[in-house]
Amino acid sequence: MAGRNPDRGKTITTVLGRRLGGELLRMREACGLRQTHAAEALTASVTKVAKIERGQVPMRDPDVRALCHLYGEKDEAVIGKLLALAKADRDRRKAKGWWNQYPQLAAMVEYVALEDIATSMRTWELAFVPGLLQTPDYARAVAVGAGSWEDPCEIEPFVEARLTRQARLRSDRPLELWAVIHEGALRQLVGGRDVMRRQLGHLLDMAALDTVRLQVVPYLTGANAGMIGAFSIVSFGEPGALDVVHMDVPSSTLWLESEEDAARHGRIFDRIARVGLAERNALDLIETIRKEMSSGD
Question: Which InterPro entries does this chain map to (predicted)?
Answer without folding.
Answer: Cro/C1-type_HTH, DUF5753, Lambda_DNA-bd_dom_sf
